[in-house]
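For this section, I looked closely at a protein sequence along with its fold in token form, which I now present.
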Amino acid sequence: MNVYFDNAATTPPRKEVISAISKVMEESFGNPSSTHSFGRTAKTYVETSRKNIAQLINAAPQEIIFTSGGTESDNMILHCAVKDLGVQRIISSRLEHHAVLHALDALEQLFQIKIDFVQTDENGAIDLKHLESLLKNDSSKKLVSLMHVNNEIGNILDLEKVGNLCHENQALFHTDAVQGIGHFTFDMEKLPVDFLSAAAHKFHGPKGVGFSFVRKNSGLQPFIYGGSQERGLRAGTESVHNIVGMCTALELAYKNLKEEKQKILEVKTNFISQISKLFPNVKFNGLCGDLTQSTYTLVNIALPIPKEKALLLDFHLDLNGIACSKGSACQSGSQSGSHVLNEIQSEVHQDWPSLRFSFSMANTTDEVDHLIKIFKDFNLK
């Protein structure tokens, strides 16, 4: 049995998404910027998708800017906030995705802006009191960038609470919502969020496409220069088929959200129960073991296995058809370990092997049973 438990890295596209993409590629190859009928048809696909995505998160169509994915969306918002809006100070956390952390490094060098990192506790939870202290008594133009759902440990940030805190202290608020969009509902009309990043392949859409939510009248100027696409912010011919695929995926995600969330939650709950019985000392990294404070889509565990034996664990799982991750998939080739786990784990737990299992509606409790059996075989050898 082959089991895919790495949905936080990427999700398999739905059949309906593949069909929608194929249909557009076969029937509408025109350039959306062309004024003839072929171009107008392609443009209609793009703008209809923009309108539908906006409705799903209760935003205005002009607030949706199509990008190549979460990394570009993060970079665009952070760079433009500094370049165009005069942001002089950015407050973030050391647990962010590298799309944010590396962008901050570059901005610090290029523009000499001040970067501050809010404190987190041993579970990776953001210290809101420390955030408030960083925001107060500072008249410089500020932006806070904190992710909605941590891609490695699953912690959920209270966007409303953080956004209100930012706005009370005259700071802009950006959230990397790559792991949240399509899995949780968003009402951008009510949420005190100025900028948001999303990627289609995290909610069963195609890779290479995403979007930024940029609140209207934000003042952002072009990030990529060329034509006038995407309200002039991002030049380049739109990837029509991918945009339609993303829209289809998001529509289906929210249409089926209640049913699929319950199914995935059952898989996660079953996994937590079984792994806790097999390894009574298992450590749930971050808040992923708390069903009320973490996403229902993933679990990240540190196992009490001797270091020398742990070296064989990844090989054993892969050999038995289990796809999971040692941390963020973007860092799977790195030997330095997860920057998130390095930040929050004790020395004892850093010596244990940590694995992230992330679930989708395609997973079943039978697959969890299979995984537990593989763990038992490994543990007994």
Remarks:
- Residues 3-11+257-380 form a domain with the Aspartate Aminotransferase, domain 1 fold (CATH 3.90.1150.10).
- The CA atoms of residues 124 and 133 lie 18 Å apart.
